[in-house]
């Protein structure tokens, strides 16, 4: 599955107190559809949204890794989450 086909949640513009609910809804839907992995775009910004995303994933035990972009470089604004 390439990035275009991967279900993606873009959290740009979300406030930190909205992150948990958005992730929960998105992950439940992805699980119900039988997805194996999803992409979460948390952006770079201040890092507050990314911190909330990582906190949620830790609490719910979803493994994740940074998204890789060409030649092994890391996209600092996105994570791949394994369901």
How would you explain this protein's 3D organization?
There is one protein chain. The radius of gyration is 12 Å and the shape is globular. 36% of the residues lie in helices and 29% in strands. It has one domain (8-82): Ribosomal Protein S8, Chain: A, domain 1 (2-Layer Sandwich). Helix 1 (16-32) links the parallel strand 1 (8-10) and strand 2 (37-41). Helix 1 crosses helix 2. The model has no long low-confidence stretch (mean pLDDT 94). Strands 1-2-4-3 form a 4-stranded mixed sheet, with helices on one face. The protein is an alpha+beta fold. It is built from 2 helices and 4 strands; from the N terminus they run βαβαββ.
Average pLDDT taken over every residue: 94
- Number of folding domains? 1
Low-pLDDT runs: none
Beta strands, count? 4
> Kindly, what is the distance between the CA atoms of the first and last residues, rounded to a whole number of angstroms?
14 Å
- Put simply, the count of helices is 2
Q: How are the strands of the largest sheet arranged?
A: 1-2-4-3
Task: Give a nutshell description of this structure.
The protein is 36% helix and 29% strand.
Q: Which SSEs are present, and which pair or pack?
A:
Elements: E1 8-10, H1 16-32, E2 37-41, H2 48-60, E3 64-69, E4 73-82
Parallel strand pairs: 1-2
Antiparallel strand pairs: 2-4, 3-4
Comma- or semicolon-separated keywords:
83 residues; alpha+beta; Ribosomal Protein S8, Chain: A, domain 1; 4-stranded mixed beta sheet; 2 helices; 29% strand; globular
């Amino acid at each position: 599955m390439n990035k275009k086909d991967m279900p993606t949640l873009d959290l740009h513009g979300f406030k930190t107190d909205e992150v948990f609910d958005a992730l929960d809804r998105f992950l439940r839907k992805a699980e119900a559809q039988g997805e194996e992995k999803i992409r979460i775009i948390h952006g770079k910004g201040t890092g507050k949204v990314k911190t909330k995303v990582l906190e949620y994933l830790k609490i719910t035990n979803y493994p994740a890794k940074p998204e890789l972009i060409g030649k092994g470089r890391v996209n600092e604004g996105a994570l791949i989450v394994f369901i």
